[in-house]
Design a protein that fits this description.
The chain is an alpha/beta fold. Helices cover 35% and strands 22% of the residues. Pfam families: ThiF (PF00899).
């Protein structure tokens, strides 16, 4: 215990946390959905701060364009096509071997999110799409778990903390998913704005879990670090007919077995969930003759096709068709090489 206390000694000296708050952090479990720009910064802070059990999920693997802002990854991860969840778990365990860290190469969905949130104290948003955010929001309000939202694009950042029973929910504040196609992959992003948003998310988590939830502001914060603008807006009351926090119908949790084909906005990639799983060794043999270039790791199989697109197969049954956002084209290639 003394060695552990020494690790966190400067944090313990901060009176609002102290020894009691540090114990609470050590007894806590946090789920981060998405291990990209926001997720890596949040995970870094929480692992160093002594959150006792840290779990996270991400469906993607590390690419060169990630290194500008996703702080846990390096060029070796890119060369090895490492899944983000695997690379992040490896790095975080080197930072703090005294806590439990679990990374899952998984697409969070209606079928698995209730399992991932089992005994979780806080859910943190590290994603880049509202479809998954609505799903996190629904499970948070169904189970009574605080949900920390964050977003960063271009030079702009945004964040809020949604607490079941105390605040309106994400769906009250954003009833429709209208991002106008603005993502990091379409209009870019500055790494400092990512660090600011994610640091505020981590800070809110520390407040909640150390027993200082009275210090969590019930506002939506937005800012533009390039234009030097900042704005806070009170959340206001919940919408009377909100299906999540008022009617409790949780529409995103009920939308099962849909959206098996998803376009990843701005990335020229379509994801298809159609099979329960892939044996990568078997599919390496199947795709070898029909591929221009093939690369297999323990976590994925990447096949560059003669048509110009690339197939990426994951053991959990997901396939990425890279090089197109046309779902018809993606489905055609999937049918040709994998089979529907």
């Amino acid at each position: 215990m003394e060695a552990s206390w020494e690790r966190y000694s400067r944090q313990i000296l901060f009176k609002p946390i102290g020894e009691e708050g540090q114990r609470k952090l050590g007894d806590s479990k946090v789920l981060i959905v998405g291990m990209g720009a926001l997720g890596t910064v949040v995970a870094n802070h929480l692992a160093r701060s002594g959150i006792g059990h840290l779990i996270f999920c991400d469906r993607d693997y590390v690419e060169l364009s990630n290194l500008q802002r996703q702080m846990l990854f390096d060029e070796e991860d890119v060369a090895n096509y490492l899944p983000k969840a695997v690379a992040a778990e490896k790095k975080l365990k080197k930072l703090n071997s005294s806590i439990k860290i679990e990374g899952y190469v998984s697409d969070v969905s209606t079928e698995n999110i209730e399992d991932y949130t089992q005994d979780v104290d806080v859910i943190i948003d590290g994603t880049d799409n509202f479809q998954t955010r609505y799903l996190m929001n629904d499970v948070a309000y169904k189970k009574g778990i605080p949900f920390i939202y964050g977003g960063a694009v271009s030079s702009r950042g945004m964040g809020a903390v949604f607490i079941p029973g105390k605040t309106a929910c994400l769906r009250c504040m954003f009833p429709t998913n209208d991002t106008a196609g603005q993502t990091c992959d379409t209009i870019g992003v500055l790494s400092p704005v990512v660090d600011i948003v994610a640091s505020l998310q981590a800070l809110a988590c520390l407040k909640l879990l150390s027993g200082n939830d009275d210090q969590v502001a019930q506002v939506l914060t937005t800012f533009d670090i390039w234009k030097n603008n900042e704005f806070t807006m009170k959340m206001g009351k919940a919408k009377v007919k909100c299906p999540t926090c008022q009617l409790k119908t949780f529409p995103s949790l009920e939308a099962r077995n849909v959206d098996n084909i998803t376009t990843l906005c701005g990335r020229e990639t379509v994801q298809i969930n159609h099979t329960p799983g892939f044996d990568l060794n078997e599919w390496e043999g199947i795709l070898r003759r029909s591929s221009k270039k093939l690369k297999k790791t323990p976590f994925l199989l990447r096949a560059e096709l003669h048509e110009g697109e690339t197939l990426v197969l994951f053991p959990d049954g997901r396939t990425l068709i890279q090089g197109t956002e046309d779902t018809t084209r993606a489905t055609s290639l999937f049918t040709k090489y994998i089979g529907m």
